[in-house]
Amino acid sequence: MPAKTLPQVTFHTRVRVAAGIEANPFAWKDLTTDDIFAGRRIILVAVPGAFTPACSNSHLPGYERDFVKYRELGVDAVYCTAVNDAFVMFQWAKSLKVDQVQMLPDGNADFAAKMGMCVRRDAQGMGDRSWRYSLYADDGKIMALFSEPGFKDNPDGVPVSISSSENMLRFLTN
Asked: SUPFAM superfamilies of this UniProt entry (predicted)?
């Protein structure tokens, strides 16, 4: 069976422009799925939300910790996506001292929805959110998907087990 291709969306990101005395040295830069994944080997970590406990305490930090190992295994980049805007994703990465894993804001939940991984978290006041998962893609094709069990709207919580960096490393080294 052929690998599933990642859905086409536009991610609204912010990038640093000339570092000068400007009050805001960032500009908007739209990136498409192809801009990020085409011709590259990418790990994508999807989390329910920036600054949430499991995402901040273990999920994202595990991928940051193992970034060098991924590069040694031929991975071109590691991205983290959440249904948060570029400003929130930037501040979250900064607060955790994440500088290797790149933030990929999905503020409108377009990617999460097209992946079939969007859930309602309105019982917690969070609206639409991504389910917790990680994937390995080669040239925009999903080669492995590690989705946490119990996919449903309004879960009590979504622990990190299957989508952990340790499981991704096991997959890539076997």
From this structure: Thioredoxin-like (SSF52833)
Contact yes or no for 165/63 (Cβ under 8 A): yes
DSSP 3-state of 32: strand
Read off the CATH number of the domain in which 104 is found.
3.40.30.10
Can 80 be counted among the known catalytic residues? no
Please give the pLDDT value at position 112.
97
CB 64 within 8 A of CB 55: no
Our count of domains for the chain comes to 1
- What is the rounded distance in angstroms from the CA atom of residue 70 to the CA atom of residue 130? 24
Give the SS3 label for residue 100. Answer: coil
Q: Are 75 and 43 in contact (CB under 8 A)?
A: yes
List 50, 55, 60, 98, catalytic entry = 55
